[in-house]
Amino acid sequence: MEFTDVKELLSWLFVEDKSVELFAFTAWMVWNQRNKIRASQNAVPLHLLCYDLQRDGRGYEDAWRGHTKQALLKRKVTADPICERCRSAVEESVHAVWSCSELGEVWDVGDEWCFRSEMEFTDVKELLSWLFVEDKSVELFAFTAWMVWNQRNKIRASQNAVPLHLVAEQAKQKLNQFKADWRNPRVRALEVLDVSNNQLIGQIPQCLLNSSNSLVLSMRNNHFQGNLPEPFINGCSLRTLDLNHNQIEGKIP
Ligand SMILES: [Zn+2]
């Protein structure tokens, strides 16, 4: 399957009755992990991320809904199912990320979610379905809800958390960044490309030489041939280029 954007992928997941929530959760963790690596912070290795999700076969159910206070009460992990933000309702999934009265700073700042006080949803899946039918931004909802959930978990773990009044704006920024990178992941995210010693033939793809990223490109010991394109010679931002042992003509600046 190929999807042009996240919205298309989400729509397909809905139509095919796949777990949209699990997808949103997994995508969020992958995204988080990428950002941590880029910021040189400790990140969960990808293979452990998968383990985290699947460890007890309940995946998402356990990762989100399963950790609400209502669920913990059922499993007798806690005796108190009440939401710690508002102290006035049982914390089930839709309450934790959406309907809690203390989340006004997140959801009631613009017009986008003005139906929050009028609509009632029994769970997050019902809310997501409704957003789809009404053509609301499911992606922005997924990002924002995950930031709210993350924020709650950090507070509970006594870690630094984004203040609630900044969550809506940051979710928008993160979504825009996510979309920009998602649309062109190969070119934008690529920083090191090493295809040396591969018997590759043909011309060097021009998009690599014109990449606006400071790319490290190692293509030594192949059978690339032809001239280096003019735009490349005039200006390019490659950090390193290794074309040794090919049949390339033209000057390297
Ligand atoms: Zn609450």
Kindly summarize this structure in a few lines:
The protein is mainly alpha-helical. Helix content is 49%, strand content 8%. The strands form 2 sheets. It has a 3-stranded parallel sheet, with no helix packed on it. A 3-stranded parallel sheet has the order 2-4-6, with no helix packed on it.
Structural class: mainly alpha
Count of helical regions: 13
SSE topology string: HHHHHHHHHHHEEHEEHEE
Question: How would you write the strand order of the largest sheet?
Answer: 1-3-5
Computed Rg: 23 Å
- Average pLDDT confidence is 74
- Ligands, ions, cofactors: zinc ion
Low-pLDDT stretches are 54-63, 185-189
Q: How helical, in percent, are the residues?
A: 40-55%
Instruction: Report the span from N to C terminus.
Output: 41 Å
Secondary structure: number of strands = 6
Question: Proportion of β residues?
Answer: 5-15%
Overall spatial form: elongated
Major sheet: 3 strands, parallel
Taken together, the total number of domains comes to: 2
